[in-house]
From TrEMBL:
<protein>
    <submittedName>
        <fullName>Adenylate cyclase</fullName>
        <ecNumber>4.6.1.1</ecNumber>
    </submittedName>
</protein>
<dbReference type="InterPro" id="IPR012042">
    <property type="entry name" value="NeuTTM/CthTTM-like"/>
</dbReference>
<keyword id="KW-0456">Lyase</keyword>
<dbReference type="GO" id="GO:0004016">
    <property type="term" value="F:adenylate cyclase activity"/>
</dbReference>
<dbReference type="InterPro" id="IPR033469">
    <property type="entry name" value="CYTH-like_dom_sf"/>
</dbReference>
<dbReference type="InterPro" id="IPR023577">
    <property type="entry name" value="CYTH_domain"/>
</dbReference>
<dbReference type="Pfam" id="PF01928">
    <property type="entry name" value="CYTH"/>
</dbReference>
<feature type="domain" description="CYTH">
    <location>
        <begin position="1"/>
        <end position="98"/>
    </location>
</feature>
Length: 98
């Protein structure tokens, strides 16, 4: 089960403690309240993720590593919704992903 928390940052001061960004490509095969199916590529690795609805802040999450070539084909052919994320690891007093 995944519990997602989001926070609004006051300023960019966190960047001095953050890693270089990891670029993620994501495509959504299905986006429904009951179940979201996502393909994600980060570097030379890829995952297929299914998220099932529990409540507005928690979901069942199942994630499987898949071959990179399969993920790239899925992104190109069956993912109508695509985004690119830049993820930073923050190592200040606590470790966060921004």
């Amino acid at each position: 089960m995944e519990i997602e928390r989001r926070f609004l940052l006051r300023d960019d001061s966190w960047r001095e403690h953050a890693s270089a960004p990891q670029v993620l490509q994501q495509g959504y095969i299905s986006v429904e309240k009951e179940c979201t199916i996502r393909v994600r590529v980060a570097g030379n690795r890829a995952w297929l993720t299914l998220k099932g609805y529990i409540s507005d802040v928690s979901r069942h999450e199942f994630e499987y590593e898949i071959p990179l070539a399969d993920a790239l084909t899925m992104l190109a052919t069956v993912c109508p919704f695509k985004i690119e994320k830049h993820r930073y690891l923050y190592s200040g007093t606590r470790r966060f992903c921004v």
